[in-house]
Amino acid sequence: MEKETSISEDKLIEKLNQVAAFVKKKYGIHIRFAEILGKRWSYIAGEKEDIFILPLTERIKVNERFGLITDRWEEIPERERNNLFSLLQRMLKEDE
Amino acid sequence: MTSITTISARKWIRSRIKEEEYKRYMKKERDFINDELIWEKLKSKRNPSPQEVRAILDKSLSLETLDPDETATLLNVKDKSLWEEIFAVAGEVKKKVYDNRIVTFAPLYCSNFCVNNCVYCAFRRDNRAEKRRRLSLEEVRREVEVLAGKIGHKRLIVVYGEHPLSDVNYIADTIKTIYSVKVKTKRGHGEIRRVNVNAAPMSIEELKMLKEIGIGTYQVFQETYHHDTYKKLHPEGTIKSNYQWRLYSLHRALEAGVDDVAIGALFGLYDWRFEVMGLLYHARDLEEHFGIGPHTISFPRLQPAVNTPFVQKAKYKVSDEDFKKLIAVIRLSVPYSGMILTAREPAHIRREVIPLGVTQTDASTKIGIGAYDQRDEGQKAEKQQFLLGDTRSLDEVIRELAENGYITSFCTAGYRCGRTGRCIMNLLKQGKERWFCKVNAVLTFREWLDDFASEKTRRVGEQLIEKEIEEIKQQKPSFYPKFMQYYERIKNGERDLYF
Lengths: 96, 499
Description:
The structure holds two protein chains of two kinds.
Chain A: H1 7-27, E1 31-37, E2 40-46, E3 58-61, E4 66-70, H2 78-94
Antiparallel strand pairs in A: 1-2, 1-4, 3-4
Chain B: H1 6-14, H2 20-23, H3 35-44, H4 50-61, H5 68-75, H6 80-98, E1 101-111, H7 137-151, E2 155-160, H8 168-180, E3 182-184, E4 189-191, E5 194-198, H9 204-213, E6 218-219, H10 227-233, H11 243-247, H12 249-256, E7 261-264, H13 272-290, E8 296-298, H14 309-313, H15 320-333, E9 338-341, H16 347-353, E10 360-362, H17 394-403, E11 407-409, H18 421-429, H19 433-452, H20 455-475, H21 480-491
Parallel strand pairs in B: 1-2, 1-10, 1-11, 2-5, 5-6, 6-7, 7-8, 8-9, 9-10
Antiparallel strand pairs in B: 3-4
């Protein structure tokens, strides 16, 4: 028997994986998404490989519950970065 | 004074086990430990050829989990020189996955009240010689002030007996208290950055509560995987007598979203080779269901305990020679898992087995309830679960490890960067985590040397650091500039910078 995940949880993971793949393809930037649980940032979706030019250690809170870990977030053009961030906030709010 | 009536304790006991939460993982009402099959495999793989053994060693070196036949083959090796090869490859596998670092931690026993009656354990309900105590939150705080402020630990494993006085609410409160303590040190501050939990099996709802607090690893040892032995040692009518409730506790944890879990067996309760097979089956079942194997594996040996005659009479005590073998075979069977060696073992054994694949160990260890703050001299058997074999200070242990080329790591970075669950498994299985291990070991070791080390240890530690930095520069040039920035900032008093 596999871990029971709700449909919305599966959908969220799928959507986050799509965002990570898009950012990687368009900007060459790697992203991993995590659920924030106190000190713990628990992996939920996105990059699993790690160790590229730099490791993913830049932690950015999307909201109180979710965050992303990346390598060169600031290299995404500001406007596109803000749009992406707003999209993530909406996505993760819906699924909270 | 904490007290609880017998009636309410009984009611609590009856409410613990939720069959529906583990039966759904069983196939045709059977769990994944098939005693007959394990013995069959151990018997069928007798007298393996050196070629067969070497092929298995190659598989381990490629960081693949072994299958039960392969592990059974290794467990059947008789030839001494072949065992030397096995020991050497076990060390290589460890280096490939975790580099030369040894993570250090301390156990913090919070309560020794227990409703179970396990014949080998000093905490058992009927043991009148054990002095019962549960730490108040203020006492927990004082323990942590010593651990983080005087000794310099960053990682704890908190331990609780199974009892309504140490239920999930108490566990949650103690962990929150631990995370809240910050102590000023010589050049920075001390704090506990990762709390791992060793507690009785819980329901999914309770495990979700633990998840919310942000625990590190959730650890439950099966003690023995052999069904009949389990039944004999855990008297009927106790919670612990339910083998499957315990066996599937980590399945429930993963289901609840706690994605770092740890397994273990208490060696000396049954045949050691059977237990190694049990651990392997456990790891494989977790992998099969969740794609996540055990974060760590523990392999404690039975130790003397107050008023516990079972230990002296135990039929399956593991010799030092067999202890080495079981550690090496576990290392080779589940290459990606961390392996925890504790201060149960005397110093000379620790020295001997660390090169066989150990990744974590404890020091300055006290296992009496409230023993750190009270600075208990020596051991107080009546307050402990068992007696320790090695009571050396962290400073001494670190110095010895450094002299032998091991860097002590206080790293707690992975679980704060999303390197948990499937992600960490992936990195470990590809041998990519070792670079994080190395750089974070150097950074945290620097912190500890500046804040807590004796002059003698500092000198030895700094020599080792120089070597490590050179290795990072040569072998991981892309990490080097940022690493050196962090390193300099830590030398100047900043704390908790990590990759």
